Amino acid sequence: MHDELQTLDLFESVPSLDVPTFFFTGRHDHHVDAGVAADYFQALDAPTKRIVWFEESAHNIPFEQPDLFHTLVLELLDSGAF
Predict the structure, then answer these.
(1) How far is CA 46 from CA 17, 21, 53, 80, in A?
(2) Phi, psi at 24, each rounded to 5°
(3) Mean pLDDT per 10-residue run, the chain (82 residues)?
(4) Residues contacting residue 74 through CB under 8 Å, at least 6 positions apart
(5) Of the candidates 35, 34, 42, 57, the residue with the CA atom closest to the CA atom of residue 11
(6) Does Hydrolase show up as a keyword for this record (predicted)?
(7) CB neighbours of 51 closer than 8 A, spacing ≥ 6?
């Protein structure tokens, strides 16, 4: 699957989504470049979208900042953003 991921271009293959979309992004992620994730978020067309930065996390946010992750997921669910 590594070869497939190397050629994946979400900007081209998924320019829009018809569902609310939330990006939880670790500032120190080395698997997915945070700048590329932010650029894709800006380009993505979705009815509702929000990017949430986890300043003390990398790629495994629910394990690196579990309390904050849990709180923010509950806030999103309670907000009715879906």
Answers:
(1) 5, 7, 19, 16
(2) -105, 115
(3) 84 96 93 90 96 95 97 91 70
(4) none
(5) 42
(6) yes
(7) 22, 23, 25, 37, 38, 41
